[in-house]
Amino acid sequence: MHPQSPTIASDLSAENASREHDSSAAPMDAMASEHRRGLLPEKFFRWRSGEITRLEAFCDVVFGFALTLLVVSLEVPRNYAELIDAIREFVPFGACFALLVLIWRGHYRFSRRYGLEDPYVVFLNIVLLFVVLFYVYPLKFVFRLIFDQWSGKAPAEIGFHEASVLMRIYAGGFVAVFALFALMYAHAYKLRNALQLNPVETLETRVMIQENVIMALVGVLSFTLAFKDPGWAGWSYFLLAPFLTIHGMLYGKRVRLLAKKLGLT
Length: 265
Hints:
Layout: H1 6-36, H2 54-68, H3 80-114, H4 119-151, H5 160-190, H6 199-225, H7 230-235, H8 240-261
């Protein structure tokens, strides 16, 4: 065998390096190409889940069942007074519906993004579904009580102790839901190499961990305030708007700059 000349060896080394670079850049190039054709549901994130799995279908059924528990009434109003009462019920129902859809949307996006169904993720999903089903009636009661106060209707008689317990139950469910989402995203971040997340997707995963931690911490604050003043415990949730807006502006800009640097825009 004749030894390879330095020129041939250097050419082979350069070719191998070029192939490695092309293989690592291929997912990002394909993602940018698919985005230009309008095929991707998210601008900077490639969904790794394929067909709807049994776990996702089961979760959708449970979310649907939770929504049926919020149904205003199965009876058709028989007079004007009953009709007005039914219409009043639709406002708290709508608020509860929106919050449950928000939770479902977060679960759907996580499932589509990563396609994870290992035992740990299955366990977190089951706990999440349990919390959602438990959360339905306290959620409906809280929004009905708030709307009755705003509309001038005589609200249910509850004292300081009952209001404190109610807000702690609400805060406990709120914390549990978003803490579970934070654990799911933390697990996905841990598996970022196995999932072949590109730098933008890795950053977005970290952003989602932070967002869910922020929401859980606000729930912890509300839970703590409920011991002293249930009213302030409720008002504390308005902190979510400025906190999430500032966080979204800061990290949204970082995501866009990184995507532009990698040629994904």
